[in-house]
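FORM 12-B: Structure-to-Sequence Request
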């Protein structure tokens, strides 16, 4: 289904929220929204880029396909990604495995966004 580009005054249509000419706006907004993650250590970034993490994430989503936060709120929503219940950097600093199932949960994208925003607010206050 075609949508009108989200850039005011553009008027072009696309399958995405932005037309091809304005896709850079979406990328910039994503960078801005998650800029606090760029402060993570090289070690933390390497975990998420590793084959081991990709396999762990896929395996975890197979055994726990529903969003756990929605489930706690008595909603049924498909999970889309695996989230560390304890911040990744803290796990690394404490010498714990970031691949341990005990520290992981499946979340849908809206719940994950809320988690990240809450962590960003905590980080800003500190």
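FORM 12-B RESPONSE
SEQUENCE OUT:
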């Amino acid at each position: 289904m075609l949508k009108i580009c989200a850039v005011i005054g553009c008027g072009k249509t696309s399958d995405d929220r932005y037309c091809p000419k304005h896709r850079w706006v979406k990328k910039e907004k994503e960078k801005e929204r998650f800029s606090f993650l760029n402060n993570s250590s090289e070690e933390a970034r390497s975990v998420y880029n590793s084959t081991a993490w990709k396999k762990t994430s896929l395996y975890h989503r197979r055994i726990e396909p529903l969003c756990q936060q929605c489930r706690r709120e008595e909603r049924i929503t498909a999970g889309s990604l695996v989230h560390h219940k304890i911040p990744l950097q803290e796990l690394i600093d404490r010498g714990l495995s970031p691949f341990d199932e005990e520290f992981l949960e499946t979340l849908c994208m809206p719940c994950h966004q809320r988690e990240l925003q809450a962590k960003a607010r905590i980080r800003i206050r500190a």
